[in-house]
Amino acid sequence: MRNLDACRKIYSRVRSSEQNPSWELLGALQYALRFTLAAAKVSRDPADLWNMQYFWMGDSHSPEDFDWLVDYLEYIDSDNQEAVFDILLLLVVIKVRCSAAKQNQFFKCLIACMGSDMPVHLRHAALRLAHSAREEIVSIGAIDNAELRDMILTEFSPAILTAISPQPGATLSKDGPDRFVRDDHDLCYLELLFALARNSNWHPHLFADHHIDRCISIVAKANFAEYAFYLAGIFLRIAPEQSSVTSLNLITEHQWWDMMRSAWLYARFQTDDIHCFEFLPVLVEGTKRYMHVAAQKYVGWKFHLRSFIENVDYVVNALEGQDSQQGEDNIVAVKELRTAASDMLEELVSSQGVVSP
Q1: In principle, which of 6, 166, 238, 320 could form an S-S bond with 116, CB 3.0–4.6 Å?
Q2: Contact 341/331 with Cβ under 8 angstroms?
Q3: Average pLDDT over residues 127-140
């Protein structure tokens, strides 16, 4: 943390000589920031934005202690891309949001850095920072400034999309940094949308700015992996109030079932996350809605249903290891789903005249 304090002091000197800013001071500040990242063993490789878990080992500080970084981000020329990248990366690492007084600057800078005119490494660093700040963004109702709330709602959502797809509709190379689908940043993107979907204020913007269309395109690829849990969370939370939106009808019942059963494969790894934990009852009801697809006895139905039951059982075991009243309620709901699926499997196997192992 002493390194970061030194950076703040250099920045104060830069601003105090604003009439005639010293290029030597600006250069020293950029070097000091880079040294701070290196000392914290933070990679500056843009590829590591997605697969690194950042842990800041500094002392406890208040948000006001980092307001100068937001000032610096606004102050610096965007042509100095390396310095902007270092600031964005440092804001990701420290996981401390700015004070209420600097929220307007913070979000304006964040949105600007996700713009289509920005180079890919800056757009992706800004997206990673948005992911890091997603809880503050979800809780938009807590922002007192009505103008700021409106700005975030109207400008932040389209900026997220340009951060990963700067030219919608353009043909992207299969190995380019903005390719579709790309495992690393699309997972970060979906986790961000999963969080936004918890707040109904964001739902019309997710539709209008074509995030839902992009999610539907991911479903069409039918290669869910861990995407399934977050896709299920996005769709199930917005579907009831958007039942008249025709784009959701593009998802077939078979795709819904594939998504639901795949979501349970990863649900067992998410029970320690309070927001994923709170989503489980919604996932239970959504799964019940589409579980009947297995009764169509398509190729592989028996394996899929057995694997699904096994994954639900893993979730039950994970929940039973927790100690909370809400955990008890979730256990009951998940156990009811497991029983319903087991009964369906037994009935379907019996109808074939085959003894279930």
Answers
A1: 166
A2: no
A3: 89
Phi, psi of 67 (to 5 degrees): -60, -30
Residue 262 vs residues 76, 84, 196, 269: alpha-carbon distances, Å:
45, 39, 22, 13
Q: Provide the pLDDT confidence category of residue 320 given band limits of 50, 70 and 90.
A: confident
Q: What angle do CA 330, 331, 336 make, to 5 degrees?
A: 100
| 21 pLDDT above the threshold of 80 | no
Residues shown for the chain? 357
Alpha helices in the chain (DSSP H): 2-16, 23-39, 67-75, 81-94, 103-113, 120-132, 134-138, 146-151, 157-164, 183-196, 203-208, 211-221, 227-238, 253-267, 274-290, 301-320, 325-351
**What tokens were used for 206?**
């997710």
Instruction: Please give the Cα distance from 92 to 56 (Å, whole number).
Output: 10
User: Cα–chain-centroid distance for residue 237?
Assistant: 15
